[in-house]
Give the backbone structure.
Amino acid sequence: DPDARTVAVRVRDRFGDYGLVGFAAVTDGVVEQLAFSCRILGMGVERAVYEWLGTPAIEVAEPVSAPLQGERPDWLRIVEGPAGPPAEAASGAAGGSPGQPGPPGRAELLFVGGCDLESVLPFLGDPDAVARHFNYSPAETPRLIVHRDSIDYLLADELPEAARTAILADAPFLDAEALVPPAWAGFREIVYSPLIDYVQAKYARPDLPGVYVSFGDVEQPNLDAAKISSLAKRYGLDPVRLEAFAQRWQVVRKPDEVWREQLRRLFSRIPADARLTVLLGATDAFGLDPERLETHRHHNALVSGVAAEFPNVATLAVDPLLHGREDFTNSIRHYSRRVYHDLARELSARLGTSAAVVLPEAAAAPGRKEARKPIATRRAPVSAARRLLRRGLRRLRDVTGPRERT
């Protein structure tokens, strides 16, 4: 549109290049598009760009992860320039062939997961050496994010053709690409995050035993008329197809043993000479999402139990990297940049010999205002002590039982 002012946003800091992370379009003083990647969540980029645009009129489509109100971050520096190609570090975030986002022959590692692994990438020394099987947005529904990292889709090639056909016919939030698993062979190191299966709801059709569709939120799984209307408006989905899906597919709780068997089949796909690292979820969010904590603990135990059966599979806990509420952004599975930085360092230590996980030097970018202590060490000792104290008190309550208030 020649009458629209359009802006592409790229972000980099002393830890790495986050790539193409935002887009804005303003027409006649009104914002038509203002969207950002979760890779830069919590950095204040949204507010800074909105103010740079001159705070034009905007109708915010709630809910959002970062408000536009508030004081503009003083640690950001906006540099104008011509639009360039997206950084390769971001190429796997919204599409690309499964397992083949980087230059041919470069990939040494395979990352299979969602926001957590996507947010680790900018902190790696050579992101091009990482093949990715991440979320993506279909061209037909660009506002929708397809979480193909659910184990129900990672094993979709095992489904009978009739089941695959039924899923694609019934589910307007999936397309054929979602059911294409990554190519596991050819990688020495694989990192897998199962967190999407901690939080998404599961649906099943009575005439398709053993077949599950993963979608939405396990805390709010029911697809009633209000929810269908909201999903259709928010993601551009066909409400008629959503209603038909709700009639054919029922909300279910996947039995633990079914998930264990799925994990065993998934882990069995890893070549014997390769190693798989499985990320576990947070079990203490310091007051955030308390209703999800028990589920996270239960699923961590389930995943760890199956991983222990395989000599080339190990788990990596995020809990030791979490010291307080400031280490999370808007949910229990979205962490601060410091946590993703430290998680990249943990992976670097584990994967060791791979050139893809050599962290860059933390040299300050020119002109950047260093207003705070080094992010990797800020407040860690005090917060860690508080975390240990809280865990001790929780265990004491488990032993003595709840106290009555008078």
